[in-house]
Amino acid sequence: MSQDLFEELHELLIPKISKCTTNWRTPISTRERLVICLRYLATGDSHQTIAFSFRVGRLTVGGIVKEVCTEIWNTLQPEYMPSPTEETWKQSEKGYRETWNFPNCVGSVDGKHVSIKCPKNSGSEYFCYKKFFSVVLLAIVDPCYKFTVIDVGSYGRHSDSGIFENSIFYRQYVHGKSLLPDKPLPGTEEPVPHVLIGDEGFALKTYLMRPFPRALATQDERKTNFNKRLCRTRRVVENTFGILAQKWRIFLRPIDCDVDTAIDIIKAACCLHNYLRTKQGTAILTPESEDENVPMRALITHRPTNRRSTTAAFETREQFVSYFNQ
């Protein structure tokens, strides 16, 4: 974050994080409060380390981090992660069609486990299959590596597909509705639904495409070509999570705080990610320039699901298979 962007962010937050000066004490300045929060997010250091660095109390650091993260979300979310509109989906579809060669795609969706300290009296609710405690960050990403929608705070033991179908986004935009009206793929005449794309952790739906199982794809070149095109485009959400974790290194270690504060931290980091991507205008990795073999270890993906899909979902995927093998 450049100094100019820091000052701009500081100006936005001054009314929200300032404290009154009293006869008893002079409060910590708004600038220092913001720096403490950003230092914590950017380094992942413990509250005690941050307290020693700024000569404040450990509990003071914890209170500042929670308050400032909450205000970052309340201030930046309406502008940098607003509720998606029809125009938002149209711009996303255009980007995926022109940059990633996947028409009728409006977003790449994936869920990641964010490691947290074991919550008190939580049993196995937050214990994921990777053998650590976590909350799930489910995100839909546009072609410019910015978060369109996020869902934070689900139990680590839940699957991607279950979290997605119980999210507010699903009830508001997907269930019984369509993201955008159907339209033909380029060079064809039959209307095809607009879709999200995900990995094997999601069930195949008319609005969500997933790759063919590897055992089937190896026996059919058409399915192999579809998998290559889908997985290359789905790397957008993987790259976004990687950028998020490398810039905000709090994600490289378990978050040592209660669950509500961890959720505020994750939401603030996602908003700051969109803020910096919008202001800095960082270049987009093209399909030809990205490395398909780079692992992303900070945030752990979900395991595959084997839920049965409807005939309409299989037919929709077959239309994409035919288009990519013309």
From TrEMBL:
Entry annotated with the keyword Nucleus: yes
Residue ranges constituting the DDE Tnp4 domain according to the UniProt record: 109-274
Record Pfam families: DDE_Tnp_4
Keywords per UniProt: Hydrolase, Metal-binding, Nuclease, Nucleus
Compartments, as annotated in UniProt: Nucleus
UniProt keyword annotation of Cell division present: no
One GO term describing the cellular component: nucleus
Entry cofactors: a divalent metal cation
GO molecular function: hydrolase activity; metal ion binding; nuclease activity
Record field: transmembrane: none
Family to which the UniProt record says this protein belongs: Belongs to the HARBI1 family.
Name the record gives this protein: DDE Tnp4 domain-containing protein
